[in-house]
Amino acid sequence: MTMQTQETTEAGRTLAALEERVRSGDEAVTADQVEQARGLSRFARLRKDAADRKAEQARTAAATRARAEAIDRAEQLLDAHTLDDIAAQYVAARKALESLVAACEARTAAVDEAARMLSIAAVRDAPGRPDVTARWDGSPANSRVETGTVRHVALEPGPVLHCLVRRIADAHPRGLPLDHTYSLARQLVVGPQSSPLDDAIGRLDAAS
User: Fold this and answer.
1) How far apart are CA 16 and CA 40, in angstroms?
2) Listed range (38-42, 92-96, 97-101) with the worst mean pLDDT
3) If 118 and its partner were Cys, which of 38, 101, 134, 204 is the partner (CB 3.0–4.6 Å)?
């Protein structure tokens, strides 16, 4: 209980007691006493109102400061992770993926051209290097060259990108959610689970 509340309570009790004495016929209580008690009770209530108002103003000021501080912290967090910054990373990733696609297609073209050259009858049937064989039917996706223990086949970018994104999604704690029901990891379950690039990726990962 605050001091102002206690003063108001005591002043109210004093006034009520004097008024009750008057009602009971106590002629010793004067009008001045009643008016003085009423004035003190009214003054005590005013003081309590003032204290309550001051406390409310203090609470409002504290809440205003807390909100301003929270807004400042929130703006700092947002400024540290802007959409423009992420857009720059997106553009860089897109360019990297475009470069990866181009590299895959260049690899496929190289395998196709190598297979075509090695499949020419004059080359295919000539003696020497029996460990080198080729298959070529005019379709780059079917071209194949084997040099010793190494098998060279077309490297379509679709499976490479599919495996790349799927593995990133699989490594994410929530599977890269698309909404409240589906995740990218779940959506990419169907499709190629490996690509001809995997062995080279494994060697690179092991070396790093």
Assistant:
1) 12
2) 38-42
3) 134
In whole angstroms, give the CA distance from residue 56 to residue 97: 59
d(CA 35, CA 15) in angstroms, rounded, equals 9
HEC per residue, 27-93: CCCCHHHHHHHHHHHHHHHHHHHHHHHHHHHHHHHHHHHHHHHHHHHHHHHHHHCCHHHHHHHHHHH
Angstrom distance (rounded) from CA 88 to CA 82:
10
pTM here is 0.69
d(CA 104, CA 197): 9
183: helix, coil or strand? strand
Q: Which tokens is 131 given? A: 């460990």
Q: Cα–Cα distance between 45 and 51 in angstroms, integer?
A: 10
Rounded CA-CA distance 22/26 in Å is 5
Per residue in 20-57, pLDDT tens? 776 777 677 677 776 776 777 777 777 878 888 989 99
Q: What is the predicted pLDDT for the residue at 4? A: 65
Separation CA 196–CA 104 (nearest Å): 10
Q: Mean of the per-residue pLDDT values for the chain?
A: 88
Distance in angstroms (rounded) separating the CA atoms of residues 13 and 38: 10
The answer to whether the CB of 184 falls within 8 A of the CB of 175 is: yes
What's the average model confidence in pLDDT over 160-170? 94
